[in-house]
Amino acid sequence: MAFQDIPKVEDPETYIDITFHAGERAGSLKRNELKGTDVTRLIRSRIIETAKIGAVQKTGVDVLLNLVRQFPSLDRLDPFYLALVKCTLDYDFLKKSLGGVMWAADRLDKLANDALRKIKATRDLEHINAHRQAFYGRTASVFKQIKTNLKYLEESRKTLKKFPPIKTDIPTVVIAGAPNVGKSSLLSALTGSTPKIAPYPFTTQNLMLGYLSCDGKKIQLIDTPGLLDRPLEHRNPIEKQAVLALKHLAKAIIFVLDPSEACGYPFQEQLNLLAEIKRSFPAPVIVVANKSDLQHGKKLAPDTIMVSAEKKIGIDDVKHKIVTITSQDAHSE
């Protein structure tokens, strides 16, 4: 989803200037074409003013419709991005603002057609100019009526631009666990490359993105520092929504434990976080015990995968589990 490519939304005065400039330019070109011809003043005026109105109509409608097209279709957004939109923006007013711009495009189109009909029917030179001037005034009024909508769309654009560039068309595995348990090291070990950094709403940290290719299948891995590393009860309601948006994305979750407690967090506290993740997310959870080369004496569940991300021990076992789970998910769909 290319939210970063949405162009800046201008104020009404800017769009008015753009459309009227197009109209005056079209009028000048038509005026030059008519030089040296023997058409009457009435016909000359009708041709020139018609050209102006036509250019304003096309430019204004195109500007407004293109503005709407640059924004994502809210009705067709991936559930992950839709959840992010709803917890970072006023979803209803965003829809209303896009609808306001659509209304303005339709209104401008109808005003232009009405003015063109009047100019075609009139036989009075002064009336031709008056109809064009009236159209210009109404066009400016239409743009000014959506000032609040345009302002909110620009605010929304700035927020959307900060959304992470997640690939929603391939399986995604989210890596969770307490701070300093080795999540980023595991991500690097699984992907064999330096993770890509992406921002995420309501955290000063960044997501770390990596991609695993295995058995001809591409899988997206996401490390979530600052997100799935502490209980949800420690977050405000909006932060909680942003965290839970990840449930729309995750086909599986890797939960990393550090039984040695070298991370600085008691093992029981890590297990409590694991239990909360399992309650909050419907995706299957792969439990990985990192730093397996360190002595810990902790009792682990039988299905826990023992690894050392630093020494690349057990990494293939994790890869196999990821591919197995994401393949099962694809078949069930």
Gap from first CA to last CA: 22 Å
| Mean pLDDT value | 91
Helix and strand composition category: alpha/beta
**Tell me about the biggest sheet?**
7 strands, mixed
Quantity of strands, as a count: 7
**Spatial order of strands in the largest sheet:** 2-3-4-1-5-6-7
- Sheet-strand content, in percent, reads 5-15%
Indicate the CATH architecture of the largest domain. Answer: 3-Layer(aba) Sandwich
Unreliable runs, pLDDT <50, ≥5 residues?
A: none
Oligomer: single chain
| Name of the CATH superfamily of the largest domain | P-loop containing nucleotide triphosphate hydrolases
Number of helices: 10
Give an account of the 3D structure.
This protein has helices at residues 12-34, 41-70, 79-88, 91-121, 125-145, 147-160, 183-191, 237-244, 267-280, 315-332; strands spanning 172-176, 196-199, 206-214, 217-223, 252-257, 285-289, 305-306. It has 333 residues and is an alpha/beta fold. The chain folds into two domains: 3-160, Four Helix Bundle (Hemerythrin (Met), subunit A) (Up-down Bundle), CATH 1.20.120.1190; 172-332, Rossmann fold. The protein has a seven-stranded mixed sheet, sandwiched between helices. Helix 9 (267-280) links the parallel strand 5 and strand 6 (285-289). The mean pLDDT is 91.
